[in-house]
């Protein structure tokens, strides 16, 4: 079976990841941290970079700001299928402070991400043949101008023949009724719904994952896959009422930023190659584990697990 191209559509920004600290310093003081990494970030960009490391045919469709930060991002997406356009705005930047126990705190600016709306993505995808590929729309909740029309983008991609996937992330104001209503619409036009455990529980307005899964069962179209990323517990897939689970290996890591995005790359890489659900989950877990074991992150080829 031929390997299908994956198109990743969504957000890119610069990340400064540093740490580790146990307590916030007093205002007006200074502390020195032992490690840092300055790199391209954003959920969509992270997934696209991991796919490139897997040497999977991939196109990244996004934007940057018109500043040196944007130029740093653009240098990593110069492939024949990439289309990253500069907008007249400052590039979004996130500062990630790492804490003990693999927890982290982010300080982010919206910057150019505020300008990513449906007309922009229509322009950036208009000459792209997605008819035999798989299209992931990632980071919706970081792009407020797209939110009202996110469903229209998914419908357009499906209408052009693409198999669709979404990873909207965590809404900035939490799972309000408005955020839940928006996301419920997206479920109807997605073939793969990639959420972490907290997002799954939040969208379903449940208390536990066990309570959340029946909520999704009642709302998913036949053959649609809900993929739940569970960190150290591995991952599971809910499809047609059946649950497939895959455990994770034990890892001791410093920097878990982008773990879910790397999982997305491994999972979709396997799906695009015709793998079974269990094999795709295992590939996602493997790729995520290997990516987050690196600090600073590498750009070298990442051979898929045997």
TrEMBL record:
InterPro entries assigned to the protein according to its UniProt record, in alphabetical order? Carboh/pur_kinase_PfkB_CS, PfkB_dom, Ribokinase-like
GO molecular function terms attached to this record = kinase activity
Q: Which SUPFAM superfamilies does this chain map to?
A: Ribokinase-like (SSF53613)
Q: Which Pfam families match?
A: PfkB
Q: Which domain of life is it from?
A: Bacteria
Q: Where are the transmembrane segments?
A: none
**Which controlled-vocabulary keywords does the entry list?**
Kinase, Transferase
Q: Where is the Carbohydrate kinase PfkB domain?
A: 6-294
- Specify the protein name: Carbohydrate kinase family protein
Q: Provide the species name.
A: Nitratireductor rhodophyticola
- Which taxonomic lineage does the organism of this UniProt entry have? Bacteria, Pseudomonadati, Pseudomonadota, Alphaproteobacteria, Hyphomicrobiales
């Amino acid at each position: 079976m031929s390997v299908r191209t994956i198109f990743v559509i969504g957000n890119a920004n610069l990340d400064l990841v540093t740490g580790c600290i146990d307590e916030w310093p007093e205002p007006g003081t200074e502390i020195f941290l032992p490690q840092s990494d300055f790199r391209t970030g954003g959920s969509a960009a992270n997934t696209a970079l991991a796919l490139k490391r897997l040497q999977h045919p991939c196109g990244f469709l996004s934007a940057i700001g018109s500043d040196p930060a944007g130029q740093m991002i653009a240098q990593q997406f110069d492939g024949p299928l990439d289309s990253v356009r500069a907008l007249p705005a400052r590039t979004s930047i996130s500062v990630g402070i790492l804490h003990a126990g693999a927890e982290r705190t982010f300080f982010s600016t919206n910057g150019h991400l505020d300008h990513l709306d449906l007309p922009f993505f229509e322009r950036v995808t208009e000459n792209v043949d997605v008819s035999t590929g798989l299209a992931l729309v990632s980071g919706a909740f970081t792009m407020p101008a797209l939110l009202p029309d996110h469903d229209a983008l998914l419908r357009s991609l499906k209408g052009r023949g693409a198999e669709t996937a979404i990873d909207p992330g965590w809404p900035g104001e939490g799972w309000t009724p408005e955020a839940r209503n928006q996301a419920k619409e997206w479920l109807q036009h997605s073939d793969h719904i990639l959420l972490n455990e907290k997002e799954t529980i939040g969208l379903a307005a449940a208390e536990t994952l066990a309570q959340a899964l029946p909520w999704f069962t009642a709302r998913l179209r036949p053959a649609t896959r809900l993929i739940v990323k569970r960190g150290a517990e591995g991952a599971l897939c809910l499809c047609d009422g059946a649950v497939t689970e895959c455990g994770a290996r034990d890892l001791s890591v410093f920097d878990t930023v982008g773990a879910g995005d790397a999982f997305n790359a491994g999972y979709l890489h396997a799906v695009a190659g015709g793998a079974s659900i269990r094999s795709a989950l295992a590939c996602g877990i493997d790729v995520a584990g290997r990516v987050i074991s690196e600090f600073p992150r590498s750009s070298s080829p990442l051979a898929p697990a045997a």
